[in-house]
Hints:
single chain; 346 residues; alpha/beta; two-stranded antiparallel sheet; 10 strands; 38% helix; 14% strand
Amino acid sequence: MRYRQFGRTGLFVSEICLGTMTFGGRGRWSAIGGLDQGAAEGLIGRALEAGVNFIDTADVYSEGVSEQILGQALKSLSVKRSDVVIATKLNGEVGPGPNDRGSSRGHILDAVKASLDRLQLDHIDLYQIHGTDPCTPVEETVRALDDLVREGLVRYVGVSNWQAWRMMKALGVAEHRGWARFESVQAYYSIAGRDLERDVVPMVQDQGMGVLVWSPLAGGLLSGKYDRDGAGPDGSRRVSFDFPPVNRERAFACVDAMREVGDALGVSVARVALAYVLSKSFVTSVIIGAKRIDQLEDNLAAADLVLTPDQIAKLDEVSALPPEYPGWMVKMQGAGRPPSPFTPKG
């Protein structure tokens, strides 16, 4: 297992992060997974044994049960606290009241205490705003998170599913006020969904933020187990929960190309898909979710799969984003100009 520096901090996290969305199976999350305490501990134990030191959850996963299972597992497995980096998130609806969601100061302070209680921890290593709250000023959110860092309840803060401009504003506010800055963004990215490269990736490279990738297999669609007509294994996630949105024509062209690479290397399509994402220099860690040990083992093995430059170029070509303004204009008008030494390398 390799470890990568987390944003501009001195913290190092495993390039494979164990996601816990499959734990609990309560409410709408049952379509994704319903692992009980014993099954979850089996996955966590194996991941830790393989060198994973990074585990991600959220207060909305299975209505809080995912956090509860993770917290109990850390105790049952006698995991040394300093050996793991625990990340959780807040923003989604966790109750019927008007203030039981969002990223207001009030909800952040309530949510962090509830998560710490469920996790049975005295601090959270990475606390992330799970989505955009259009009602709350960015300044209010950043100030509240800074207070949590100063109190020692949270070590680092990050964000998930935000636009590049909003993250840049938050970073500017934090720098101006001397508050804790966002060190990472957790975002959807896969070979079939490279939209992140348009604006978010250049921004995070310039600002030194880490990228934590969720759904690198596009909700299982890139596992190689689905047909073009959408048919897949019984009980599979995509059959009952068709998310995230994917251009299927482009996605299956990627699957065909990855299958060729996988057949040549003797590995699964899923492993190639994960290795492709890990090959990108801007990616800090890839979040994997599994229901079974064999799935986990195949995903973990992606850390050992190094694609050749020719293989990456082939996959880059088949998955290339269509031109979009102003990108094509920037490229055209910048032709012939030498790259700036300060321009981040992709």
